[in-house]
Write a structure and sequence with these properties.
Helices cover 32% and strands 24% of the residues. With 340 residues, the chain is of the alpha+beta class.
């Protein structure tokens, strides 16, 4: 059983506590100064959406904008030659979004081409609106390029083949424009009509969406390029303004090798001209089997070889085995600016 204290002992303990633990008397607070100016916080507060982080700076977005403005001009020239009509392409927007937002913005059915930019990792999307697809098809198949009402149908196999060639040419132009950043080889991987089946990135990942507006005399439509951040991550430093400008001023050895490789596989028409003469229409109509025409060259003279209708070499006809050949004896030098 605990010790029992008397009332006197309890009073003595309470008296000791009041003496030792007595709080110090606080100094009186200074009187407030009348009309004292309040401190103003001039720091600027910026809104930040954690669901849509900006992983690409404004400077890099500006570089992408300049890059694809050049692409719009080059693609406009390409489509003008393919469609045989006036085509105007304007860069409408370059923005950062999440991949889920991009997928929701694409209509169904659509014409979605998944492609790679080798050697970069991941894939990208080239999307063309159905209205523009049918304008191009109508023009390529002999029509005026008018808008078709039934744009919600799927493409036939023939239509897919024709549009596939146009997308290949469009990606070839993209390759030319991107040479200011590096050497890439766009290659189509897949074709889809339902955006829900295209998964190049998680829904919450950041992507760059580049929208182009295409206008012809008879209609218009949209093209869009979607690049996930994982694809741009390895070249993000090259998208700064200084890096891009310096890259435009220099041509690397790799670029030269690429151009030489592309030109080495190009076919060219070669023909040798024996000679020429002038005839009146009357003499031409009176020609018959066995007639002899006098040309403007001697039999021992060199022939002229034309490459795509341009005179380039001098030489003599010969035979190698059972094949006809042409032996080059000289090169025709042409001054810059000479007309054909």
């Amino acid at each position: 059983m605990g010790e029992i204290y008397s009332q006197a002992a309890i009073d003595e303990m309470l008296k000791g506590l009041s003496t030792v633990g007595a709080p110090a008397v606080a100094a009186p607070a200074p009187a407030p100064i009348p009309f004292a100016p309040a401190k103003v916080d001039n720091r600027k507060v910026n809104l930040y959406d954690f669901t849509r982080p900006d992983r690409i700076s404004k400077d890099q977005i500006s570089t992408l904008r300049n890059l694809h403005e050049s692409y719009a001009r080059l693609l406009s020239t390409t489509l003008m030659g393919l469609l045989r009509t006036s085509v105007e392409i304007n860069l409408q927007n370059v923005e950062q979004l999440t991949y889920g937002e991009v997928i929701k913005s694409i209509s169904t059915p659509s014409c979605i081409y998944v492609f790679q930019m080798e050697p970069l990792e991941s894939s990208a999307i080239f999307d063309v609106s159905p209205s523009l697809i049918f304008i191009m098809l109508d023009r390529l198949f002999g029509g005026q390029g008018r808008t078709v009402d039934s744009t919600n149908r799927e493409l036939t196999d023939i239509e897919k083949t024709v549009i596939y060639k146009i997308i290949e040419r469009s990606l070839a132009d993209l390759k030319v424009v991107w040479e200011n950043i590096g050497i890439f080889s766009p290659k189509i991987e897949n074709y889809e009509i339902n955006p829900q089946f295209v998964q190049i990135a998680p829904p919450g990942d950041t992507v760059v969406l580049i929208t182009l507006e295409v206008r012809t005399r008879t209609g218009s439509g949209l093209m869009s390029l979607c690049f996930p951040f994982i694809l741009l991550e390895s070249i993000i430093d090259k998208l700064s303004g200084e890096s891009w400008i310096s890259a435009q001023k220099t041509t690397t050895q790799e670029t030269r090798r690429m151009v030489e490789k592309e030109l080495s596989s190009t076919n060219a028409m070669l023909r040798a001209e024996i000679g020429s003469t002038q005839l009146s229409v009357r003499d031409f109509l009176q020609l018959s089997v066995g007639d002899v025409m006098v040309l403007d060259k001697l039999a021992q003279s060199d022939l002229v070889m034309f490459i795509e209708d341009r005179p380039k070499f001098l030489g003599k006809p010969s035979v190698v085995g059972r094949s006809k050949s042409f032996q080059i004896t000289g090169i025709i030098d042409r001054e810059v600016g000479d007309e054909d």
